[in-house]
Protein backbone atom coordinates (compact mmCIF):
# COMPACT_ATOMS: atom_id res chain seq x y z
CA UNK A 1 0.00 0.00 0.00
CA UNK A 2 2.83 2.37 1.01
CA UNK A 3 4.48 1.66 -2.33
CA UNK A 4 1.31 2.61 -4.23
CA UNK A 5 1.14 5.89 -2.31
CA UNK A 6 4.80 6.55 -3.04
CA UNK A 7 4.31 5.89 -6.75
CA UNK A 8 1.21 8.07 -6.80
CA UNK A 9 3.14 10.81 -5.04
CA UNK A 10 6.02 10.61 -7.53
CA UNK A 11 3.58 10.54 -10.43
CA UNK A 12 1.81 13.70 -9.20
CA UNK A 13 5.20 15.41 -8.74
CA UNK A 14 5.98 14.61 -12.37
CA UNK A 15 2.60 15.97 -13.45
CA UNK A 16 3.30 19.12 -11.45
CA UNK A 17 6.79 19.82 -12.83
CA UNK A 18 6.73 18.21 -16.26
CA UNK A 19 4.53 20.82 -17.97
CA UNK A 20 6.83 23.60 -16.75
CA UNK A 21 9.92 21.75 -18.05
CA UNK A 22 8.23 20.95 -21.35
CA UNK A 23 7.16 24.55 -21.69
CA UNK A 24 10.75 25.75 -21.07
CA UNK A 25 12.09 23.23 -23.58
CA UNK A 26 9.53 24.34 -26.17
CA UNK A 27 10.58 27.94 -25.47
CA UNK A 28 14.26 27.04 -25.91
CA UNK A 29 13.65 25.33 -29.27
CA UNK A 30 11.52 28.27 -30.44
CA UNK A 31 14.23 30.81 -29.50
CA UNK A 32 17.07 28.74 -30.99
CA UNK A 33 15.18 28.40 -34.31
CA UNK A 34 15.44 32.19 -34.74
CA UNK A 35 19.24 32.21 -34.37
CA UNK A 36 21.55 31.72 -37.37
CA UNK A 37 22.97 28.19 -37.75
CA UNK A 38 25.71 26.97 -40.08
CA UNK A 39 23.69 23.85 -40.94
CA UNK A 40 20.32 22.42 -39.85
CA UNK A 41 20.73 20.26 -36.72
CA UNK A 42 20.14 16.49 -36.76
CA UNK A 43 17.12 15.63 -34.54
CA UNK A 44 19.29 13.55 -32.14
CA UNK A 45 22.96 14.46 -32.63
CA UNK A 46 22.29 18.13 -33.24
CA UNK A 47 25.56 19.50 -34.64
CA UNK A 48 27.76 16.97 -32.81
CA UNK A 49 28.72 15.24 -36.05
CA UNK A 50 29.05 18.50 -37.92
CA UNK A 51 31.27 20.62 -35.66
CA UNK A 52 34.92 19.67 -35.97
CA UNK A 53 37.76 20.74 -33.77
CA UNK A 54 40.14 21.64 -36.56
CA UNK A 55 41.54 24.71 -38.24
CA UNK A 56 39.76 23.92 -41.52
CA UNK A 57 36.38 23.85 -39.76
CA UNK A 58 37.20 27.04 -37.82
CA UNK A 59 38.16 28.73 -41.11
CA UNK A 60 34.90 27.60 -42.75
CA UNK A 61 32.88 28.90 -39.78
CA UNK A 62 34.82 32.19 -39.81
CA UNK A 63 34.15 32.67 -43.55
CA UNK A 64 30.43 31.95 -43.03
CA UNK A 65 30.25 34.49 -40.18
CA UNK A 66 32.18 37.26 -41.92
CA UNK A 67 30.34 36.88 -45.25
CA UNK A 68 26.97 37.07 -43.47
CA UNK A 69 28.05 39.56 -40.79
CA UNK A 70 27.05 37.16 -38.02
CA UNK A 71 28.18 37.81 -34.45
CA UNK A 72 25.80 35.40 -32.74
CA UNK A 73 24.74 31.89 -33.75
CA UNK A 74 23.66 28.64 -32.17
CA UNK A 75 24.50 24.97 -32.22
CA UNK A 76 23.12 21.85 -30.57
CA UNK A 77 25.04 18.98 -29.02
CA UNK A 78 22.33 16.32 -28.81
CA UNK A 79 18.58 16.88 -28.52
CA UNK A 80 18.65 18.88 -25.26
CA UNK A 81 21.96 20.79 -25.07
CA UNK A 82 21.81 24.12 -26.92
CA UNK A 83 24.73 26.58 -27.03
CA UNK A 84 24.75 30.17 -28.20
CA UNK A 85 28.07 31.34 -29.66
CA UNK A 86 28.92 35.01 -29.13
CA UNK A 87 31.59 36.65 -31.28
CA UNK A 88 31.36 40.38 -30.41
CA UNK A 89 32.99 42.43 -27.61
CA UNK A 90 29.63 43.89 -26.54
CA UNK A 91 28.23 40.36 -26.05
CA UNK A 92 31.26 39.50 -23.90
CA UNK A 93 30.49 42.53 -21.72
CA UNK A 94 26.81 41.49 -21.35
CA UNK A 95 27.30 37.87 -20.28
CA UNK A 96 30.72 37.61 -18.62
CA UNK A 97 29.35 38.08 -15.09
CA UNK A 98 27.26 34.91 -15.31
CA UNK A 99 28.55 31.77 -13.56
CA UNK A 100 30.63 29.15 -15.34
CA UNK A 101 28.64 26.49 -17.13
CA UNK A 102 28.58 23.31 -15.01
CA UNK A 103 27.93 21.24 -18.15
CA UNK A 104 30.96 22.50 -20.10
CA UNK A 105 33.46 22.55 -17.22
CA UNK A 106 32.22 19.18 -15.83
CA UNK A 107 34.39 17.40 -18.39
CA UNK A 108 37.51 18.68 -16.62
CA UNK A 109 36.15 18.08 -13.12
CA UNK A 110 37.41 14.51 -12.63
CA UNK A 111 40.88 15.98 -13.06
CA UNK A 112 40.78 19.55 -11.69
CA UNK A 113 38.01 18.94 -9.15
CA UNK A 114 36.30 22.01 -7.81
CA UNK A 115 39.42 24.21 -8.02
CA UNK A 116 39.42 27.91 -8.78
CA UNK A 117 38.83 27.43 -12.51
CA UNK A 118 35.64 25.38 -12.13
CA UNK A 119 34.11 26.35 -8.77
CA UNK A 120 31.32 28.95 -8.53
CA UNK A 121 29.77 30.94 -5.68
CA UNK A 122 31.05 31.45 -2.13
CA UNK A 123 33.67 28.68 -2.22
CA UNK A 124 35.22 30.22 -5.33
CA UNK A 125 35.22 33.67 -3.67
CA UNK A 126 36.90 32.31 -0.52
CA UNK A 127 39.62 30.57 -2.54
CA UNK A 128 40.17 33.49 -4.90
CA UNK A 129 40.66 35.80 -1.90
CA UNK A 130 42.96 33.28 -0.28
CA UNK A 131 45.15 32.87 -3.37
CA UNK A 132 45.26 36.43 -4.68
CA UNK A 133 48.25 37.32 -2.41
CA UNK A 134 50.28 34.57 -4.15
CA UNK A 135 50.23 36.81 -7.26
CA UNK A 136 51.12 40.02 -5.46
CA UNK A 137 53.72 42.21 -7.18
CA UNK A 138 56.24 41.48 -4.36
CA UNK A 139 55.83 37.74 -4.86
CA UNK A 140 56.14 37.95 -8.66
CA UNK A 141 59.26 40.11 -8.67
CA UNK A 142 61.83 37.46 -7.59
CA UNK A 143 60.29 34.93 -9.99
CA UNK A 144 62.13 36.69 -12.84
CA UNK A 145 65.28 34.88 -11.63
CA UNK A 146 63.45 31.57 -11.80
CA UNK A 147 62.30 32.30 -15.37
CA UNK A 148 65.92 33.12 -16.23
CA UNK A 149 67.35 29.98 -14.59
CA UNK A 150 64.85 27.69 -16.27
CA UNK A 151 65.32 29.38 -19.65
CA UNK A 152 69.09 28.86 -19.33
CA UNK A 153 68.48 25.11 -19.28
CA UNK A 154 66.46 25.40 -22.49
CA UNK A 155 69.15 27.59 -24.08
CA UNK A 156 71.88 25.03 -23.34
CA UNK A 157 69.78 22.24 -24.88
CA UNK A 158 69.03 24.36 -27.93
CA UNK A 159 72.67 25.45 -28.23
CA UNK A 160 73.74 21.80 -28.53
CA UNK A 161 71.21 21.26 -31.33
CA UNK A 162 72.25 24.49 -33.08
CA UNK A 163 75.94 23.50 -33.00
CA UNK A 164 75.08 20.04 -34.37
CA UNK A 165 73.16 21.66 -37.22
CA UNK A 166 69.89 20.09 -36.00
CA UNK A 167 66.51 21.82 -35.85
CA UNK A 168 64.73 22.08 -32.49
CA UNK A 169 61.15 20.99 -31.84
CA UNK A 170 59.48 23.89 -30.09
CA UNK A 171 56.20 22.82 -28.48
CA UNK A 172 57.46 19.94 -26.32
CA UNK A 173 60.63 21.64 -25.15
CA UNK A 174 58.77 24.85 -24.29
CA UNK A 175 56.14 22.79 -22.46
CA UNK A 176 58.84 21.28 -20.26
CA UNK A 177 60.27 24.74 -19.63
CA UNK A 178 56.96 26.27 -18.49
CA UNK A 179 56.21 23.19 -16.37
CA UNK A 180 59.62 23.58 -14.71
CA UNK A 181 58.85 27.27 -14.06
CA UNK A 182 55.41 26.81 -12.53
CA UNK A 183 56.53 23.93 -10.31
CA UNK A 184 59.47 25.95 -8.98
CA UNK A 185 57.47 29.19 -8.50
CA UNK A 186 54.15 27.88 -7.23
CA UNK A 187 55.29 24.79 -5.33
CA UNK A 188 59.06 25.31 -4.73
CA UNK A 189 59.44 21.95 -6.47
CA UNK A 190 62.51 21.21 -8.60
CA UNK A 191 61.34 18.57 -11.05
CA UNK A 192 64.28 18.39 -13.54
CA UNK A 193 61.59 17.79 -16.16
CA UNK A 194 63.62 19.70 -18.76
CA UNK A 195 66.56 17.35 -18.44
CA UNK A 196 64.59 14.11 -18.24
CA UNK A 197 63.80 13.32 -21.85
CA UNK A 198 61.70 14.07 -24.84
CA UNK A 199 58.20 13.99 -23.37
CA UNK A 200 57.36 14.26 -19.70
CA UNK A 201 54.77 11.62 -18.59
CA UNK A 202 52.80 14.37 -16.83
CA UNK A 203 52.71 16.51 -19.99
CA UNK A 204 51.59 13.42 -21.92
CA UNK A 205 48.82 12.71 -19.42
CA UNK A 206 47.56 16.31 -19.59
CA UNK A 207 47.35 16.15 -23.40
CA UNK A 208 45.43 12.88 -23.22
CA UNK A 209 42.99 14.29 -20.63
CA UNK A 210 42.34 17.43 -22.73
CA UNK A 211 41.78 15.32 -25.81
CA UNK A 212 39.36 12.96 -24.12
CA UNK A 213 37.51 15.76 -22.28
CA UNK A 214 36.69 17.49 -25.57
CA UNK A 215 35.65 14.29 -27.26
CA UNK A 216 33.34 13.43 -24.32
CA UNK A 217 31.86 16.95 -24.30
CA UNK A 218 31.09 16.74 -28.01
CA UNK A 219 29.43 13.32 -27.83
CA UNK A 220 25.84 13.64 -26.53
CA UNK A 221 25.76 10.02 -25.31
CA UNK A 222 29.10 10.13 -23.45
CA UNK A 223 28.35 13.61 -22.07
CA UNK A 224 25.00 12.43 -20.70
CA UNK A 225 26.36 9.21 -19.19
CA UNK A 226 27.36 9.39 -15.55
CA UNK A 227 31.01 9.19 -14.47
CA UNK A 228 30.73 5.57 -13.33
CA UNK A 229 29.49 4.36 -16.72
CA UNK A 230 31.99 6.53 -18.62
CA UNK A 231 35.06 5.62 -16.56
CA UNK A 232 34.40 1.92 -16.00
CA UNK A 233 32.42 0.78 -19.04
CA UNK A 234 33.88 2.67 -22.02
CA UNK A 235 37.34 2.25 -23.61
CA UNK A 236 37.66 6.06 -23.67
CA UNK A 237 36.94 6.17 -19.94
CA UNK A 238 39.66 3.56 -19.25
CA UNK A 239 42.18 5.73 -21.09
CA UNK A 240 40.98 8.79 -19.18
CA UNK A 241 41.40 6.99 -15.85
CA UNK A 242 44.93 5.93 -16.75
CA UNK A 243 45.88 9.52 -17.60
CA UNK A 244 44.13 10.80 -14.46
CA UNK A 245 46.13 8.40 -12.29
CA UNK A 246 49.37 9.76 -13.77
CA UNK A 247 48.33 13.42 -13.36
CA UNK A 248 47.10 12.99 -9.77
CA UNK A 249 50.17 10.96 -8.81
CA UNK A 250 52.28 13.90 -9.91
CA UNK A 251 50.41 16.53 -7.84
CA UNK A 252 50.07 14.28 -4.78
CA UNK A 253 53.83 13.71 -4.78
CA UNK A 254 54.50 17.45 -4.87
CA UNK A 255 52.05 18.17 -2.03
CA UNK A 256 53.48 15.37 0.10
CA UNK A 257 57.06 16.60 -0.30
CA UNK A 258 56.11 20.20 0.45
CA UNK A 259 54.08 19.18 3.50
CA UNK A 260 57.12 17.38 4.87
CA UNK A 261 59.24 20.52 4.42
CA UNK A 262 56.63 22.67 6.15
CA UNK A 263 56.41 20.22 9.08
CA UNK A 264 60.15 20.58 9.57
CA UNK A 265 60.09 24.37 9.44
CA UNK A 266 59.23 26.03 12.74
CA UNK A 267 56.12 28.14 13.14
CA UNK A 268 58.25 31.28 13.66
CA UNK A 269 60.01 30.69 10.36
CA UNK A 270 56.70 30.47 8.56
CA UNK A 271 55.39 33.64 10.17
CA UNK A 272 58.61 35.45 9.26
CA UNK A 273 58.21 34.26 5.66
CA UNK A 274 54.64 35.50 5.46
CA UNK A 275 55.74 38.92 6.79
CA UNK A 276 58.28 39.05 3.97
CA UNK A 277 55.42 38.14 1.59
CA UNK A 278 57.48 35.29 0.13
CA UNK A 279 55.02 32.48 0.71
CA UNK A 280 54.52 30.61 -2.52
CA UNK A 281 51.15 29.40 -3.72
CA UNK A 282 51.43 25.95 -2.12
CA UNK A 283 52.61 27.46 1.20
CA UNK A 284 49.44 29.54 1.29
CA UNK A 285 47.26 26.50 0.63
CA UNK A 286 49.00 24.36 3.22
CA UNK A 287 48.88 27.08 5.86
CA UNK A 288 45.15 27.54 5.19
CA UNK A 289 44.87 23.78 5.68
CA UNK A 290 46.70 24.04 9.03
CA UNK A 291 44.25 26.67 10.22
CA UNK A 292 41.28 24.43 9.50
CA UNK A 293 40.24 24.40 13.18
CA UNK A 294 37.89 27.34 12.54
CA UNK A 295 36.30 25.34 9.73
CA UNK A 296 37.36 27.75 7.01
CA UNK A 297 40.62 26.16 5.81
CA UNK A 298 41.13 23.83 2.87
CA UNK A 299 40.86 20.05 3.02
CA UNK A 300 43.64 17.86 1.55
CA UNK A 301 41.45 17.16 -1.47
CA UNK A 302 40.78 20.86 -2.02
CA UNK A 303 44.52 21.47 -1.96
CA UNK A 304 45.00 18.89 -4.69
CA UNK A 305 42.23 20.53 -6.75
CA UNK A 306 44.03 23.87 -6.58
CA UNK A 307 47.48 22.42 -7.30
CA UNK A 308 46.14 20.58 -10.37
CA UNK A 309 44.34 23.73 -11.52
CA UNK A 310 47.34 26.02 -11.10
CA UNK A 311 49.88 23.67 -12.59
CA UNK A 312 47.68 23.03 -15.65
CA UNK A 313 46.64 26.68 -16.08
CA UNK A 314 50.14 27.84 -15.28
CA UNK A 315 52.16 25.81 -17.76
CA UNK A 316 50.09 24.66 -20.72
CA UNK A 317 48.54 28.06 -21.49
CA UNK A 318 51.91 29.83 -21.36
CA UNK A 319 53.60 27.08 -23.42
CA UNK A 320 51.02 27.50 -26.16
CA UNK A 321 51.34 31.30 -26.10
CA UNK A 322 55.14 31.04 -26.36
CA UNK A 323 55.04 28.49 -29.18
CA UNK A 324 52.79 30.72 -31.31
CA UNK A 325 54.94 33.73 -30.51
CA UNK A 326 58.12 31.92 -31.64
CA UNK A 327 56.30 30.83 -34.78
CA UNK A 328 55.44 34.42 -35.73
CA UNK A 329 58.96 35.67 -34.94
CA UNK A 330 60.49 32.97 -37.14
CA UNK A 331 57.97 33.64 -39.88
CA UNK A 332 58.63 37.41 -39.94
CA UNK A 333 62.42 37.95 -39.73
CA UNK A 334 62.16 41.77 -39.81
CA UNK A 335 59.87 41.75 -36.73
CA UNK A 336 62.25 39.28 -35.07
CA UNK A 337 65.19 41.61 -35.72
CA UNK A 338 63.32 44.64 -34.34
CA UNK A 339 62.55 42.73 -31.15
CA UNK A 340 66.16 41.58 -30.83
CA UNK A 341 67.43 45.15 -31.19
CA UNK A 342 65.10 46.26 -28.41
CA UNK A 343 66.13 43.36 -26.16
CA UNK A 344 69.85 44.04 -26.69
CA UNK A 345 69.34 47.75 -26.06
CA UNK A 346 67.81 46.89 -22.72
CA UNK A 347 70.30 44.14 -21.82
CA UNK A 348 73.39 46.26 -22.66
CA UNK A 349 75.72 43.28 -22.77
CA UNK A 350 74.15 41.40 -19.83
CA UNK A 351 72.75 37.88 -20.35
CA UNK A 352 69.66 38.08 -18.16
CA UNK A 353 66.79 40.51 -17.71
CA UNK A 354 65.84 42.01 -14.34
CA UNK A 355 62.32 42.73 -13.22
CA UNK A 356 62.80 46.47 -13.88
CA UNK A 357 63.81 45.77 -17.49
CA UNK A 358 60.45 44.28 -18.38
CA UNK A 359 58.61 47.59 -18.66
CA UNK A 360 61.19 48.75 -21.22
CA UNK A 361 60.39 45.96 -23.69
CA UNK A 362 57.54 47.82 -25.32
CA UNK A 363 57.82 46.48 -28.86
CA UNK A 364 58.36 42.91 -27.62
CA UNK A 365 55.23 43.27 -25.49
CA UNK A 366 53.26 44.36 -28.59
CA UNK A 367 54.52 41.23 -30.41
CA UNK A 368 53.45 38.96 -27.54
CA UNK A 369 50.02 40.59 -27.38
CA UNK A 370 49.53 40.29 -31.14
CA UNK A 371 50.42 36.56 -31.04
CA UNK A 372 47.82 36.08 -28.28
CA UNK A 373 45.29 38.02 -30.35
CA UNK A 374 45.61 35.71 -33.35
CA UNK A 375 46.09 32.55 -31.26
CA UNK A 376 44.61 33.02 -27.78
CA UNK A 377 45.55 29.86 -25.82
CA UNK A 378 42.12 29.92 -24.09
CA UNK A 379 39.95 30.50 -27.16
CA UNK A 380 36.44 29.81 -25.76
CA UNK A 381 34.88 30.17 -22.33
CA UNK A 382 31.36 29.05 -21.38
CA UNK A 383 28.80 30.62 -19.08
CA UNK A 384 25.36 29.56 -17.78
CA UNK A 385 22.76 32.29 -17.84
CA UNK A 386 21.01 33.02 -14.53
CA UNK A 387 18.04 34.58 -16.34
CA UNK A 388 16.59 34.91 -19.83
CA UNK A 389 18.22 37.75 -21.77
CA UNK A 390 17.96 39.58 -25.06
CA UNK A 391 21.27 39.98 -26.84
CA UNK A 392 22.01 41.35 -30.31
CA UNK A 393 18.22 41.54 -30.81
CA UNK A 394 17.76 37.82 -30.05
CA UNK A 395 15.90 36.42 -27.05
CA UNK A 396 17.99 33.73 -25.26
CA UNK A 397 16.31 31.61 -22.58
CA UNK A 398 18.48 30.71 -19.62
CA UNK A 399 18.43 26.99 -20.54
CA UNK A 400 20.98 27.71 -23.31
CA UNK A 401 24.63 27.96 -22.30
CA UNK A 402 26.60 30.78 -23.91
CA UNK A 403 30.04 30.24 -25.44
CA UNK A 404 32.13 33.40 -25.52
CA UNK A 405 34.32 33.03 -28.57
CA UNK A 406 37.51 34.85 -27.54
CA UNK A 407 39.22 33.65 -30.74
CA UNK A 408 36.30 35.01 -32.82
CA UNK A 409 36.32 38.40 -31.06
CA UNK A 410 40.08 38.66 -31.65
CA UNK A 411 39.65 38.04 -35.39
CA UNK A 412 36.45 40.02 -35.92
CA UNK A 413 36.62 42.34 -38.96
CA UNK A 414 34.15 44.64 -37.15
CA UNK A 415 36.85 45.31 -34.55
CA UNK A 416 40.21 44.79 -36.25
CA UNK A 417 41.51 46.10 -39.57
CA UNK A 418 42.98 43.24 -41.66
CA UNK A 419 42.21 40.90 -38.75
CA UNK A 420 44.22 37.93 -40.04
CA UNK A 421 47.43 39.89 -40.46
CA UNK A 422 50.16 39.67 -37.77
CA UNK A 423 50.81 43.32 -36.99
CA UNK A 424 52.27 44.05 -33.51
CA UNK A 425 51.88 47.81 -33.99
CA UNK A 426 48.14 47.53 -33.36
CA UNK A 427 49.14 47.36 -29.70
CA UNK A 428 51.20 50.53 -29.80
CA UNK A 429 49.60 52.77 -27.12
CA UNK A 430 48.64 55.37 -29.78
CA UNK A 431 46.62 52.81 -31.74
CA UNK A 432 45.11 50.95 -28.81
CA UNK A 433 43.69 53.82 -26.80
CA UNK A 434 40.25 54.08 -28.48
CA UNK A 435 39.65 50.34 -28.64
CA UNK A 436 36.80 48.70 -26.71
CA UNK A 437 38.55 46.95 -23.75
CA UNK A 438 36.47 43.81 -24.42
CA UNK A 439 37.83 43.46 -27.96
CA UNK A 440 41.08 41.99 -26.59
CA UNK A 441 40.54 39.48 -23.79
CA UNK A 442 43.14 36.66 -23.87
CA UNK A 443 43.01 36.56 -20.06
CA UNK A 444 39.24 37.11 -19.95
CA UNK A 445 37.99 40.06 -17.87
CA UNK A 446 35.92 40.86 -14.80
CA UNK A 447 36.04 39.08 -11.44
CA UNK A 448 36.83 35.69 -13.05
CA UNK A 449 39.72 36.93 -15.12
CA UNK A 450 43.02 35.06 -15.12
CA UNK A 451 44.67 35.28 -11.72
CA UNK A 452 48.05 34.41 -13.28
CA UNK A 453 48.11 36.95 -16.13
CA UNK A 454 51.03 39.05 -14.84
CA UNK A 455 52.95 35.91 -13.98
CA UNK A 456 52.44 34.59 -17.53
CA UNK A 457 53.18 37.88 -19.27
CA UNK A 458 56.44 38.40 -17.34
CA UNK A 459 57.50 34.83 -18.05
CA UNK A 460 56.79 35.21 -21.77
CA UNK A 461 58.94 38.35 -21.96
CA UNK A 462 61.91 36.75 -20.21
CA UNK A 463 61.80 33.58 -22.30
CA UNK A 464 61.42 35.40 -25.63
CA UNK A 465 64.10 37.98 -24.82
CA UNK A 466 66.60 35.30 -23.73
CA UNK A 467 66.01 33.23 -26.87
CA UNK A 468 66.32 36.22 -29.20
CA UNK A 469 69.48 37.38 -27.49
CA UNK A 470 71.11 34.03 -28.19
CA UNK A 471 69.70 32.72 -31.48
CA UNK A 472 68.22 33.78 -34.76
CA UNK A 473 65.15 31.70 -35.66
CA UNK A 474 64.14 30.33 -39.01
CA UNK A 475 61.46 27.97 -40.36
CA UNK A 476 62.89 25.72 -43.07
CA UNK A 477 59.63 23.94 -43.97
CA UNK A 478 57.90 26.26 -46.50
CA UNK A 479 54.46 24.69 -45.92
CA UNK A 480 54.60 25.29 -42.16
CA UNK A 481 56.05 28.73 -42.76
CA UNK A 482 53.00 29.61 -44.85
CA UNK A 483 50.57 28.21 -42.32
CA UNK A 484 50.83 26.34 -39.02
CA UNK A 485 47.36 24.94 -38.35
CA UNK A 486 45.86 25.09 -34.88
CA UNK A 487 44.05 22.34 -33.02
CA UNK A 488 41.39 23.69 -30.66
CA UNK A 489 41.43 21.16 -27.79
CA UNK A 490 40.60 22.95 -24.50
CA UNK A 491 43.57 25.15 -25.47
CA UNK A 492 44.56 26.36 -28.92
CA UNK A 493 47.50 24.10 -29.74
CA UNK A 494 49.61 23.82 -32.88
CA UNK A 495 48.25 20.92 -34.95
CA UNK A 496 51.73 19.90 -36.08
CA UNK A 497 55.23 19.98 -34.66
CA UNK A 498 57.05 23.26 -35.15
CA UNK A 499 60.75 22.81 -35.96
CA UNK A 500 63.06 25.81 -35.95
CA UNK A 501 66.54 26.15 -37.37
CA UNK A 502 68.59 28.14 -34.87
CA UNK A 503 71.75 30.10 -35.56
CA UNK A 504 73.91 30.94 -32.57
CA UNK A 505 74.58 34.69 -32.41
CA UNK A 506 77.60 36.44 -31.06
CA UNK A 507 76.76 38.84 -28.22
C1 LIG B 1 49.34 32.94 -21.52
C2 LIG B 1 48.95 32.35 -20.44
C3 LIG B 1 47.54 32.33 -19.90
C4 LIG B 1 46.35 32.58 -20.54
C5 LIG B 1 46.13 32.94 -21.99
C6 LIG B 1 45.30 32.41 -19.54
C7 LIG B 1 43.95 32.63 -19.81
C8 LIG B 1 42.95 32.48 -18.87
C9 LIG B 1 41.55 32.71 -19.12
C10 LIG B 1 40.95 33.16 -20.45
C11 LIG B 1 40.88 32.44 -17.98
C12 LIG B 1 39.37 32.47 -17.77
C13 LIG B 1 38.84 31.06 -17.93
C14 LIG B 1 37.34 30.94 -17.86
O1 LIG B 1 36.61 31.89 -17.63
O2 LIG B 1 36.88 29.79 -18.03
C15 LIG B 1 41.86 32.04 -17.00
C16 LIG B 1 41.56 31.69 -15.70
C17 LIG B 1 42.49 31.25 -14.81
N1 LIG B 1 43.85 31.23 -14.96
FE1 LIG B 1 44.88 31.75 -16.62
N2 LIG B 1 45.87 32.06 -18.37
C18 LIG B 1 47.23 32.02 -18.52
C19 LIG B 1 48.18 31.74 -17.56
C20 LIG B 1 47.89 31.41 -16.26
C21 LIG B 1 48.89 31.17 -15.24
C22 LIG B 1 50.38 31.29 -15.43
C23 LIG B 1 48.20 30.81 -14.11
C24 LIG B 1 48.71 30.45 -12.75
C25 LIG B 1 49.93 30.57 -12.37
C26 LIG B 1 46.78 30.85 -14.43
C27 LIG B 1 45.76 30.53 -13.56
C28 LIG B 1 44.43 30.71 -13.82
C29 LIG B 1 43.37 30.39 -12.88
C30 LIG B 1 43.55 29.78 -11.50
C31 LIG B 1 42.16 30.74 -13.48
C32 LIG B 1 40.77 30.65 -12.88
C33 LIG B 1 40.52 31.99 -12.19
C34 LIG B 1 39.13 32.13 -11.56
O3 LIG B 1 38.15 31.65 -12.14
O4 LIG B 1 39.08 32.75 -10.50
N3 LIG B 1 46.64 31.23 -15.73
N4 LIG B 1 43.12 32.08 -17.56
From TrEMBL:
Cofactor(s), names only, from the UniProt record: heme
UniProt lists the family membership as follows: Belongs to the cytochrome P450 family.
Instruction: Print the keywords alphabetically.
Output: Heme, Iron, Metal-binding, Monooxygenase, Oxidoreductase
Q: What is the originating organism of this protein?
A: Amphimedon queenslandica (Sponge)
Give the encoding gene's name: 100639405
Q: What's the name of the protein?
A: Cytochrome P450
Q: Which InterPro entries match?
A: Cyt_P450, Cyt_P450_CS, Cyt_P450_E_grp-I, Cyt_P450_sf, Cytochrome_P450_Monoox
Q: Does the keyword S-adenosyl-L-methionine apply?
A: no
List, alphabetically, the Pfam families matched: p450
The positions making up the signal sequence are none
- Among its keywords, does the record have Heme? yes
GO MF terms here are: heme binding; iron ion binding; monooxygenase activity; oxidoreductase activity, acting on paired donors, with incorporation or reduction of molecular oxygen
Which Gene3D superfamilies does this entry report, sorted A to Z?
Cytochrome P450
**UniProt binding sites for heme:** 450
Amino acid sequence: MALVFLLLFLFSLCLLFLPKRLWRYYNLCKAMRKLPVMAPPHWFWGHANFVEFSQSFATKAYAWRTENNIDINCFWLGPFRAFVMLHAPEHFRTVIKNPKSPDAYAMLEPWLGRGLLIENGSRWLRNRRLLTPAFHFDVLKPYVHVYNDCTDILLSKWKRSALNGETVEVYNTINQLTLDVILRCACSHFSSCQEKGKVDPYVDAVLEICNLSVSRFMNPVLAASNDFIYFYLTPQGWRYRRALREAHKHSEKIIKERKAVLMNEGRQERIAKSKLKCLDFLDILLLANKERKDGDGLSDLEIRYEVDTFVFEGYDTTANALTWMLYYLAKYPEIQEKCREEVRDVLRGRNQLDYDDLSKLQYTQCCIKEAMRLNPPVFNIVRSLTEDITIGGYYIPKEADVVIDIGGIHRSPNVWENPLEYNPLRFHPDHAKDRDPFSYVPFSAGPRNCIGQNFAFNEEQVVIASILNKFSLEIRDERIKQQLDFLPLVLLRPAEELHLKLTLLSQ
